[in-house]
Amino acid sequence: MSRATTLVRLALRNLRRQARRSAITAAAMIVGGALMIFSLTIGDGGHEDWIRSGARMGSGHIAIQAPNFQKSRKIDDRLPAPARAAAEAALGSPQITEHLLAAVPQLAVVGLASSPTGARPAQIIGVDPIAEAEFSILDDKLVEGRYLEPDDRLAAYVGAGLLEGLDLRLGSRFVLTAQDADGEIAGQLVRVVGVYRSGVPEVDQVVIHIPLATAGSWLRSGDDVTTIAVLLDSSDRVAPTSRKLTRELSAEIEAGDLTVLSWREAMPVLDAAVRIDDLGNYVWQGIMFGIIALGIVNTVLMSVLYRKREFGLLQALGFTPRQTGGLIVTEGIILTFVSGLIGIALGLFLTWFFFRDGLDFSFAWDEEWSFSGIAMDPVFVPLFRTTRVIQSLVFLFLIGIFASIYPAYRATRIDVAEAMKFER
């Protein structure tokens, strides 16, 4: 313990002796730490917005579906009534409702939308109007008419792209065609009651909302649904909530009646986009801190070269080469860890003080924001996570160790006799 204390005291003394050099290196680490925590919090906030938007435009943070529906997208792979009842009962447990914002039934099929002027492929989703209004963001994208209401029967809420493609207008009638639960091709006449513009052309051209009761009657599926979409208060709650639902529904899962999918499994394109953006962020940080690490190597190595006599004297007094190397590593760790800690604290404060209401990137785009089929808010609100601070500190700690290895190795190779002849 006394030797460790001695190493720390000698390391601090040596850093003070070379105050200018230490300050320059520390300044680089402080700026790097601040930039790292800024990019991580802004990136996490942006990803949370992507995930939330994707969840509300799709099948939620968690999707409870029949095992094969994700691949087939056929009405044959729907949740039977007992499985739906079990899922809704599980969602009502206190452990899950604590973080549950909405759980909505959906009956989705791939079909055809036809008008006198042509036909277009469509993703037709039967929804509960009241529940879906709390869950989805499409009702907020209304540009004409209104969203679905509980008393609607032959109503349809369509995107502006589909409306233009079929040459329809508000109040126009058109026909939906899809395969029903009996395997027959069935048609349903509906009327446009509302038009939305989501900002994502792919969505505006294909997605149609109709009342769930109408879809069940038309497709002869009764009260069965294809998905129960679950919306949570944070994407951080997806993994624990999925595990709880899996435990609660283990009997139904083993029987092959349903499966519990996280948003990563239900929306693989969005998952890939988030992972790629994360990778780009890590690569940028790796390059930046690689440059900073070279600066630390230079600082510590120059310190070693100018202190040969001191190291020789320490070894003459009983220091082993290993302890001499440990002294150099201790200096590097102290320099990087303390300056990195200051940088992270400074970055957290500046990010919260200046950007806690969000960083607006709308100046860079003139049109609606979309990415991987998801409409995004151009204002990125930073998301502060304790895990990110811990990861940053560990990363900086490792930078300090690795940047000090070569200078420490050089210090262990000093010859005592030659070092005692070294003139400062």
List the helices and strands and how they pair.
Layout: H1 2-17, H2 19-57, E1 62-65, H3 69-72, H4 81-91, H5 94-97, E2 100-115, E3 118-127, H6 129-135, E4 142-145, E5 155-159, H7 160-165, E6 173-179, E7 185-196, H8 201-204, E8 207-211, H9 212-218, E9 227-232, H10 238-248, H11 250-254, E10 259-262, H12 263-266, H13 268-305, H14 308-316, H15 321-355, E11 359-360, E12 370-371, E13 374-375, E14 379-380, H16 386-412, H17 416-421
Parallel strand pairs: 3-8, 5-7
Antiparallel strand pairs: 1-9, 1-10, 2-3, 2-6, 2-9, 4-7, 5-8, 6-7, 11-14, 12-13
Instruction: Indicate the mean pLDDT.
Output: 84
Radius of gyration: 31 Å
- β-sheet strand percentage: 15-25%
How do the strands of the widest beta sheet line up side by side? 2-3-8-5-7-6
**Poorly predicted segments:** none
Quickly count the domains. Answer: 2
What's the number of helices?
Answer: 17
Structure explained in plain terms:
The protein has 17 helices and 14 strands. α1 packs across α15. The chain is 55% helix and 19% strand. The strands form three sheets. It has a six-stranded mixed barrel. It has a two-stranded antiparallel ribbon with strand order 11-14. The two termini are 32 Å apart. It has 424 residues and is of the alpha+beta class. The protein has two domains: 204 residues, no CATH class; 205 residues, no CATH class.
Give the tags.
alpha+beta; two-stranded antiparallel ribbon; 2 domains; six-stranded mixed beta barrel; 424 residues; single chain
In short:
The chain is an alpha+beta fold.
